[in-house]
Amino acid sequence: MNTNQEVRVPSEPAAPPRKNRWEGIVVTAAPTVAFVAANAVGDLTAGLVTAAVTAIAAFGWRLYRRQPVRQAVLGLLLVAACAVVAAVTGEARGFFLIPALIPFAVIAVCVTTVLIGRPLTGLILNRVAGGPADWRSVPRLRRIYTVSTLTCAAVNVVNGALQVIYYQGNQPLVLGAVHIATGPVFAVIVAVTVACVRRARRG
User: Fold this and answer.
1) C or N terminus of the chain, fewer CB within 10 Å?
2) Strand, coil or helix: what is 132?
3) What's this model's pTM, rounded to 2 decimal places?
4) Sorted alphabetically, which InterPro entries does this protein's record hold (predicted)?
């Protein structure tokens, strides 16, 4: 038996480059920014056309950067659905009706996954963080994922409430700002969760 045989320790999965994370946030927010800006200086039609062009450009950019096709298609479909609602209602705030409903669906999912012992952030981020497959049986990791999932739920409570208030107040500019702000907030939650899991593993 060779006692000098080198023992290799599996390395932690590399986190996505910070630049790419922020690039994704900017690309995702671009159609909303374009819609709000064009609607403010022009009218609803100008806003919808500008948002459509920007969404198609964002779709092409995601493909060029070789990002997951599903992510690119979902982003394009979401903008298309928002544009259809705005066109049907004839109101700029209609562009934000679907985004205003999404937080309530996310709250339900977050709370449900915590109640059944499978916190949502654990299901999504455990592999990225390099956690073990049986993370649900590790109290420290399960606690981290539970806290981060409940934090996501709390953020969505605030997000949903703000969007309902400003939707009823017919303030598309503020709705756009609230919608755009959620990207960086959730990016921070993801980064903190991954960092905490990796620190727990080292501990």
Assistant:
1) N
2) coil
3) 0.78
4) UCP010219 (IPR016566)
